[in-house]
Amino acid sequence: MIELKNTTKIYEINKNNKVTAIKDISFKIKKGELVVLKGVSGSGKSTILSLIAGVSRPTEGDVIVDSKRVSKLPDSFASKYRQESIGFIFQKYNLIPNLSVIDNVLIPLIPTNPNGEEITIKLDKVLNHFNLLDKRETIVKNLSGGEQQRVAIARALINEPNIIIADEPTANLDEALSLNFIDILGELKKEGKTIVIATHDPLFFNLDIVDRVLEIQGGVLSF
Amino acid sequence: MKNRINLYLVEFAINALLRAKSKNIFIIVVFTLLIALLASIFFITNSIKYELDQTIESLPQIIVQKIKAGREYDIEIDRVENIVTIAGVESVTPRVWGYYYFANAGVNFSIVGINQYEEQYKKSLENLVDRFDFDKLESNSSMIVGVGVKRVMSSSYYSDYFNFIKPDGTLKKVMIGGVFRGDTELESNDMIILPQKDAREIFGMSEDLATDIVVKVANPKEIPTIAGKIRLLYPDSRVLTKNDLKVSYQNIFDYKSGLFLALFTISLFTFFMIIYDKSSGLSSEEKREIGILKAVGWSIDDILKEKFYEASIISTVSYLLGVLIAFAFVYIFQAPLLRGIFEGYSELKTSFNLPFVFDMQTLFLLFFLSVPIYIGATIIPAWRASSLDVDEVIR
């Protein structure tokens, strides 16, 4: 279960310029739920995702995931948490453009120093699942937007995390590719993954697979 | 098993370097050249210092010269009898040596006259010449010449003998009995060794005079005392001790190594400029990449390890290449351009070989001056970037 308790995040741009991204937000997401965070750009959706993923720490309040106070974890534990529990799909994919598909997908596995057999099994599984087997050696900057997104999803899933976080996943996709992504989400939900998506794409708001839509306005939850 | 080297991390580091191929090749080239320059300076300095130490070691303990009107004159041989009576003096030897100007080639030869009972010469000569037979030298009126002298004489068609012009205008024919070994060129290039009686004839020096007198002392600690006594005995003499000569050689070396110090400082300065530039920050692309790695589960430790591998590869490759280039430059190609700083000006320029001196300390010093500093300069900004909130880095 994911829980945000009175969470506030303030970004300090410089000494005289502070931006409150979210303010005193509290909510819970149950295991296996698919929750959409809705809101305009700058409303604080991405900040909430960062806090859940443990890539950022709240200024006040707590973020608790599966009884772990993620917001208080020291770096090595936070990294382990991200590695084992979180699959992050970024808005701009955040792939390393000059690396091949395989090398990008493998990045989360590298710190675990896996054996060759483990790598082969996991790689074959995700590449096959996302139809990337024939592109495995292609340098990602030479792929189309849709293909790059599939690489980003494959990378997010290679460690078989329980929580999938996606930040504006369809912002750079056409409708067909967006629908394809929704199919993938459906499959992941079926597998029991907890999914949190930040988006302002109306395509997501009335989907059967979506359990809840939380609307964020100006850094606070609007009910 | 947990502690085995993570080869995937090493492979990632290599890939990271290959991704920025041109930038990293440029860094390796600049870094290699700087290390090669620094190493060359060290190697040349070591070689010359070694050579100087060897030269100083072979110098006489005390040299007595006669001074008149502030100038050096030939000294009376009978002074030997008085000097040898000073307590602590082991042996006293008059020397006959000087310069002979060969007008045809416009060069000076250094002529040293020896006689077969002078033990100190015998030992040195055995080191300088492969086969040394003084009896043959004296009976044939022949000489041993340096490689440079041999070359100059041959170019004037004197391949077997040489005609010296004596002060009275007559000729003195001396056969070339041998040539010094090539590896002694620094000392022997312009040198001619011949029997003392022939040297006297060439210089027009009478039997009762010598160029100077060298004194050997039983206890080296007594050298200053004995030198003082000689000064008292012969106030018109200049008494030079081995230490005086050492200081004078050292001054020449220090003056010339000062030029090297300037080069050394410039290259070190350039190196630290690069290091400062590198440590002052990462590009936004590099920061973003660190953010991505952290976001997908890498710890600060993993990122620093990866950066450590990257920096180690670059700095170690540059270090090894730099040292190899310096070895080749100094010991195979004999340091063209740089060695000129140490070569004195002379008409018969020595073409000595820089002797190979393998000094682990120098290699360690170079290593610690380059590799750890570069690694530190790479890791510090990476540590700074990876310590930030990941979303701050990616945004």
Looking at the structure, what is the overall shape of chain A?
globular
Largest interface: A-B, 36 and 26 residues
Shape of chain B: elongated
* Number of β-strand runs of chain B: 12
**In percent terms, what proportion of residues of chain A is strand?**
25-35%
Distance between the termini of chain B: 38 Å
Low-confidence stretches of chain A: none
Counting DSSP H or I runs of 4 or more residues, the number of helices of chain B is 14
Q: Which structural class fits the helix and strand makeup of chain A? A: alpha/beta
Note down, in words, how this protein is organized:
The complex is a heterodimer of chains A (223) and B (395). Chain A is an alpha/beta fold and 223 residues long. Helix content of chain A is 31%, strand content 28%. Chain A is built from six helices and ten strands. In chain A, the strands form two sheets. Chain A has a six-stranded mixed β-sheet, sandwiched between helices. Chain A has a four-stranded antiparallel β-sheet with strand order 2-1-4-5, covered by helices on one side. Chain B has 395 residues and is of the alpha+beta class. Chain B has helices at residues 7-19, 21-57, 79-83, 119-128, 134-139, 147-155, 185-188, 196-203, 223-233, 242-279, 284-295, 300-332, 360-387, 390-394, and strands at 62-68, 71-73, 75-76, 89-102, 107-114, 142-145, 161-165, 171-179, 191-195, 209-210, 212-217, 237-241. In chain B, the strands form two sheets. In chain B, strands 1, 2, 4, 5, 6, 7, 8, 9, 11 and 12 form a ten-stranded mixed β-sheet that branches. In chain B, β7 and β8 form a beta hairpin. The longest helix of chain B is centred in the middle third of the chain and has 38 residues, at 242-279. The radius of gyration of chain B is 31 Å and the shape is elongated. The two termini of chain B are 38 Å apart. The interface between A and B is medium-sized, with 36 and 26 residues.
